[in-house]
Amino acid sequence: QVQLVESGGGLVEPGGSLRLSCAASGGSVSSYAMAWFRQAGKDREFVATINRSGGNTHYADSVKGRFTISKDNAKNTVYLQMESLKAEDTAVYFCAGRRVASNVLLKTGHQFDYWGQGTQVTVSS
Q: Which regions in the chain score pLDDT beneath 50?
């Protein structure tokens, strides 16, 4: 069973950048569809997703052009590079994974079997 651990969150000023990491153990991210979600209130919101091979990605409209999801299979880690951060990006960010047999893109929370504990991102001056 894969375990996911997020890191890299913190306090950043508006317009700043952060890179979140999601380190996997007990499984190889090269066999998993992975994604990032965030939660600022009651609801969890999709942020970005990447397929098993890493060759296809998809983003929420609210982060498109500012965030980049990527995979490093050698490090067994998924990243979320966040640029031009805004106050409304403030949330707890979670990574999620599901072992898949094909290069599908998964975009909704219920499609994922494994979740990390989350890392807090606060955008404030």
A: none
